[in-house]
Amino acid sequence: MYETIYVFCINTGSAAAGPQCSRSLNGGLSWDVQQPGYPTDTAQCSGLHGHLAGSNDGAIYRGNPSCDGPAVYRSLDGGSIWTEHTITTTVPMQEGWHSHEVAVAADEAGNLFASWISIDDMPWMAYSRDQGDTWSEPMMVAPPGVNETGFPTIFAGEEGRVVVGYIGEGDDLGGWSGYMSVMTDAFAENPLITTVAVNSPNDPLDITDDCGNVRCGGFGDFIDVELDDEGRPWIALAHNTNGELGIVGTFVTGPALYGELRQLPEITPGGPSTL
Questions:
Q1: Region of residue 78 (left: phi > 0; alpha: psi -120 to 50; beta: else)
Q2: How far is Cα 75 from Cα 144, in angstroms, rounded to an integer?
Q3: C-alpha–C-alpha distance, residues 238 and 215, integer Å
Q4: pLDDT by residue (tens digit) across 102-132?
């Protein structure tokens, strides 16, 4: 009945209270009373959650663990009634700082993607093509040579095109970098995953021993990744070794995640001089 419904949810930090959500039907002028952002007849094991994601088909999603594993919560009526959808029971959530972080995104065709850090400290992703009712087998998306990661984030463009962002440390233990893993054919039997670090190896974003499993400097709770209008992915995070400055990163050239699948024009590389 409404052209646009605005929804927000807050972390309570309490499994008993769970996330609380409210919606506006008049462009944000007034808001419904807060109510549980989960099915009230289902036990909750976390009051923390990631960013909301709206889909072109009218569904709205938020990610956080169920009591069984990484999960997505779905509302089909603009944030009033929610259902719980566990993604997997075989690739569980990390037991440390990222035990609550499930990132979620919907592509232009309404397909759903979720990413989380598992007990191997690596980023995993799964997708659903039926609004979260069923899920693909999870896939680990980091490249060889990266052995610990943290702060998962995700965004999707055209059908089957998705980018997963995270920080990671390599085999040389030389510090933490910001990574984007890009897929243009996520539904393929063996999808191609192209990963780029947005900083050079001699310019780490942090040198803390266990940055992937602690609240690390300017990374705080979350980092973020989004697409601009031409389909170029941008990851937003912190350059902690330079005073916790906020930075954004992308690739010099790569595939467009919106519109026609094409190679994007090259842009001038950034670097410390642009901080």
A1: left
A2: 37
A3: 12
A4: 999 999 999 999 999 999 999 999 999 999 9
Q: For the chain, give the percent of residues with pLDDT over 70.
A: 100
Residue in this structure with the two tokens 């941008």, named with its chain if needed: 234
Q: Which of 49, 58, 62, 42 is nearest to 4 (CA)?
A: 58
Within 10 Å of residue 137's Cβ, how many Cβ atoms?
Answer: 9
**What does pLDDT average to over the chain?**
92
Give yes or no for residue 48 having a pLDDT over 80: no
Overall average pLDDT of the 144-152 stretch = 93
Q: What residues form DSSP beta bridges with 128?
A: 112
Q: Where are the domains of the chain?
A: 1-86, 90-263
Answer whether residue 242 shows pLDDT above 80: yes
Spatial CB neighbours of 253, under 8 Å, sequence gap ≥ 6: 263, 264, 265, 266, 267
Distance CA 170, CA 154 (A): 21
Measured CA distances, 234 to 164, 179, 223 (Å):
11, 10, 11
* Cβ density class 13-35: b for 16+ within 10 Å, e for less: eeeeebbbbbbbbeeeeeeeeee
Q: How many CA atoms lie within 13 A of 231 on its CB side?
A: 23
Q: Output the six-digit token pair for 119.
A: 């007990």
Measured distance CA(156)–CA(158) in Å, rounded: 7
What pLDDT is stored for residue 1 in this prediction? 64
Q: Which residues contact 217 (CB under 8 A, 6 or more apart)?
A: 206, 208, 211, 238, 240, 244
- Asked if residue 255 lies in contact with residue 265, where contact means CB atoms within 8 angstroms, the answer is no
Look at residue 189 and tell me whether its pLDDT is greater than 70: yes
**In whole angstroms, what is the distance from residue 232 CA to residue 166 CA?**
17
The pLDDT of residue 156:
98
